[in-house]
Amino acid sequence: MFLSRHGIQPLLVEKRTGTSLLPRAPGLQARTMELFRAAGVAPQVRALEMGDSHAYFEGGILRVDTFADIANAVVLEAPSLDGPTISPERVMGCGQDRYERVLVDLARQTGAQIRFGCRLVSFDQDPDGVTALLEDVESGERRTVRAAYLVGADGARSRVREQLGVTRTGRGTVFHALSIYFRSTRLEQLLDGRKFILCYATAGGMVGLSRLHGRDPWLAAPVYRPDLGESPEDFDDERCLAVLRTAAGSADLDVEIMAKVPWEGAQLVAERFRVDRVFLAGDAAHVHPPAGGFGANTGIHDAHNLAWKLAAQLKGWAGDGLLDSYHAERQPLGTAMAAQAMVRNRIRHGYASDKDRAEMVDDIIITLGYRYRSDLIAQAEEGDVLTPRLELTGEPGTRAPHVWLDRDGERLSTVDLFWSSYVLLTREDGHAWCDAAARIADRLRVPLRAYRVGPGGDLVDADGDWARRFGVPPGGAVLVRPDAFVAWRGGSSGGVDEETVLAGVVAQATGGRSAVASGPGR
Ligand SMILES: Cc1cc2nc3c(=O)[nH]c(=O)nc-3n(C[C@H](O)[C@H](O)[C@H](O)COP(=O)(O)OP(=O)(O)OC[C@H]3O[C@@H](n4cnc5c(N)ncnc54)[C@H](O)[C@@H]3O)c2cc1C
Question: Which DSSP category does 359 fall into?
Answer without folding.
Answer: H
